[in-house]
């Protein structure tokens, strides 16, 4: 897919391509595709129109890594940071920060917390005023995630996450993120809520519906979100999504000039995503394995 860059975006792209403007370093970030069944739906936030990045776009919960996310004091259950480093193809410290950021940002932006009092349980309800006060303190960065978990006597459940994708913002963009995408099931008993902040609306929606609305011009989806929804739309249940074998391939769309116009070249969905398991394919070797064994 070719995505034209026009106006100021096109001019900046030409400057970067010609070496007249520097490439901005990409910040580590994490985002989580929350899923629920019957039918399979994803949770999306609509970013405020006033924001400098992805204004008006529907996105999954997520954000940049806080330096404190790599704190060794964070109580941890499930695959270790070393195991995640292998899956995410990065160093152990970065992997720790990414997984923590995924859990923290999901709580900050949806009220859903992938943590529990022990390795085999998850918090059942996070809707009280005391939980909201802690969530706001995390957003304000007056409370670290390690302090939050210690105060609540909780452990981060890294086994509830599955690595899905790796996108890096194109080099010609003025704001850049090196983002790992994860998928996770909505824990039993928990409910998402509209917590405001950088979003002005939230919705649970079937991936196919979101794609249809985007095609009709009713929703703005950025390329990573569009591709991820296309891939998730191939499945019917959360268990199928979690059992699907993924090879994490880094995607950084290149900018090129074609016939006088600068465009981003966006790759299509993973081969086979259009057919998915409903086409009769055999489940991958992760079928039946606990989530802790397949980050």
Write the layout of secondary structure elements.
Elements: E1 2-5, H1 7-17, E2 27-36, E3 41-47, E4 58-59, E5 62-64, E6 76-77, H2 81-88, H3 92-110, E7 115-116, H4 129-140, H5 145-152, E8 155-157, E9 162-168, E10 177-185, E11 199-205, H6 207-215, H7 223-232, H8 238-243, E12 250-251, E13 255-258, E14 261-265
Parallel strand pairs: 2-10, 6-8, 9-12
Antiparallel strand pairs: 1-14, 2-3, 2-5, 3-4, 3-11, 7-8, 9-10, 13-14
Helix pairs in contact: 2-3, 6-7
Quick structural summary:
28% of the residues lie in helices and 23% in strands. The protein is built from eight helices and 14 strands. Helix 2 crosses helix 3 and helix 6 crosses helix 7.
Q: If you had to describe this structure to a student in words, what would you say it looks like?
A:
The chain has 295 residues and is α+β, with helices and mostly antiparallel strands. It has one domain (2-293): Nucleoside Triphosphate Pyrophosphohydrolase (Alpha-Beta Complex), CATH 3.90.79.10. It has eight helices and 14 strands. It has helices at residues 7-17, 81-88, 92-110, 129-140, 145-152, 207-215, 223-232, 238-243; strands spanning 2-5, 27-36, 41-47, 58-59, 62-64, 76-77, 115-116, 155-157, 162-168, 177-185, 199-205, 250-251, 255-258, 261-265. Strand 2 and strand 3 form a beta hairpin. The radius of gyration is 19 Å and the shape is globular.
């Amino acid at each position: 897919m070719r995505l034209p860059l026009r106006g100021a975006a096109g001019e900046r792209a030409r400057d970067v391509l010609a070496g007249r403007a520097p490439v901005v370093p990409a910040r580590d970030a994490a985002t989580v595709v929350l899923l629920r069944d019957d039918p399979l739906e994803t949770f999306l936030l609509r970013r405020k129109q006033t924001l400098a990045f992805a204004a008006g776009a529907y996105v999954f919960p997520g954000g940049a890594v806080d330096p404190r996310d790599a704190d060794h004091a964070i109580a941890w259950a499930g695959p270790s940071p070393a195991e995640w480093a292998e899956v995410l193809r990065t160093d152990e410290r970065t992997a720790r920060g990414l997984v923590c950021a995924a859990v923290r940002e999901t709580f900050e932006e949806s009220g859903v917390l992938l943590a529990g009092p022990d390795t085999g349980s998850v918090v059942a309800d996070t809707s009280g005023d005391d939980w909201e006060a802690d969530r706001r303190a995390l957003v304000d960065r007056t409370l670290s995630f390690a302090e939050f978990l210690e105060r609540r006597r909780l452990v981060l459940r890294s086994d509830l996450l599955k690595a899905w994708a790796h996108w890096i913002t194109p080099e010609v963009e003025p704001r850049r993120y090196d983002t790992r995408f994860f998928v996770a099931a909505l824990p039993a008993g928990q409910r998402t809520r509209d917590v405001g902040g950088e979003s002005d609306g939230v919705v649970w929606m079937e991936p196919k519906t979101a794609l249809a609305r985007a095609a009709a011009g009713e929703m703005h989806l950025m390329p990573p979100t569009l591709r991820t929804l296309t891939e998730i739309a191939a499945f019917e249940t959360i268990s199928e999504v979690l059992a699907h074998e993924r090879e994490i391939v880094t995607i950084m769309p290149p900018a090129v000039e074609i016939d006088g116009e600068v465009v981003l070249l966006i790759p299509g969905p993973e081969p086979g995503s259009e057919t998915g398991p409903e086409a009769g394919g055999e489940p991958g070797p992760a079928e039946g394995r606990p989530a802790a064994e397949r980050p």
